[in-house]
Give the backbone structure.
Amino acid sequence: MTNLAVAARGVRKSYGDKVVLDGIDLSVPEGTIFSLLGPNGAGKTTAVKILSTLISADQGQAQIAGHDLTARAQAVRAAIGVTGQFSAVDGLITGEENMLLMADLHHLSKREGRRVTAELLERFDLVEASKKPASTYSGGMKRRLDIAMTLVGGPRIIFLDEPTTGLDPRSRHNMWQIIRELVTGGVTVFLTTQYLQEADELADRIAVLNNGKIAAQGTADELKRLIPGGHVRLRFADPAAYQSAASALDTATRDDDALSLQVPSDGSQRALRFVLDRLDLAGVEADELTVHTPDLDDVFFALTDAPARPARTDQPMEAAR
């Protein structure tokens, strides 16, 4: 568990006969972004609530920032910050007052509270709106204020439970930049999200939760390689070169009309090198080469009980993803 911000083993949680978490293991290195994916009801929020001491697990053990989750719950709370799905911002008071209230809750002195508040309002581009009631803020501004409030206590680990839900694309991208900057500053981020692109863009490691169990975990690229369907597509202008390549690549699927070959591939450098070496041995060169790998949507639908992904109608099947 050395250098792990979060280390959980065999965590279980049930409500009556319903098993929500069925013995999950999680490892999150310090200074990284970890994303927990899963369909609605998979147990993502329950996992966050357990790891942030809001509820207790039925079985299992965990260490957060080096502290035992059960034996040293107060030390865990001092090391973490939590931003839930729903904003904790009080709309009846100003953004600055929300920040100062949070500083009081962390028992900061008046002077220190004002210093931290001013610094975070500046950092999150909220100075101009700080004297206005938070109810007048846009969705993106409220989420920025939410995270700024979470940072008042200087947490080492931040749990972000679907932080961009309901935001427009521009606000979502702004939030992504904020999350990246948090990690650059040394914070570990534990992120749950239903936006697969979000996990793909941000996370160093991803775990897919389904029916209370971890279906798979790894980097985005590692997860994509678990799903069949990846291939290298080669196109040729010269029929003779096409025939030579087809002979050299006997596992390829041929399209004689288009003079193209489709070679199964997991998208790795080794697989691509194999194709290129075979072409070199045959003394031919493809006029066009594209690598196609399953995306995180494919991973999600393959590993979870989410409804099947609808067929794509906006682009040909062979279009690069």
